[in-house]
Amino acid sequence: MVGEDSGDFRQRIRQSFERQAAMKTIGAELTRVEHGMIEIELPFDVKLTQQHGMLHAGVISAALDSACGFAAYSVIDPDASILTIEFKINLMSPGRGERFLFRGEVTKPGTTIIVADGRGYAIGDGPAKLIASMTGTMMVIRGREGITG
After folding, report:
1. 130 CB contacts (<8 Å, ≥6 apart)?
2. Which H or E run contains 73?
3. pLDDT tens digits for 10-33?
4. What dotted CATH number matches 9-141?
5. How do the domains of the chain map onto residue ranges?
């Protein structure tokens, strides 16, 4: 189950990401796809901010959840899918930057449950700044009507 995918996991992930209307809505882009690790980037957009002009925590959470979920999706069989069943997020610094990078990495692969950790970074003039971290638990789904890739 967990190991290099005999199929093209990168293609599966890109196709699944393209079907995520939420990521399209916020302008997120899948920028790196590796076995067990995904990166999603997002340009700053005032429409995604809260009342103080910072990237909204809900947007940060959604992007990190997708990064962690797709990292988990990269290590499962081609006929299975992933659903997030729990996550915890720590918001560490204000979401201020020109762009944002969200990286998800599998911490503990499994046949039924996968744990992934995510980090969100604000990118601007100086070095990237850590703004959030997430730990997510994903459930591997097989043979469930209406849930595919």
Report:
1. 92, 93, 119, 120, 121
2. helix 57-73
3. 999 999 999 999 999 999 999 999
4. 3.10.129.10
5. 9-141
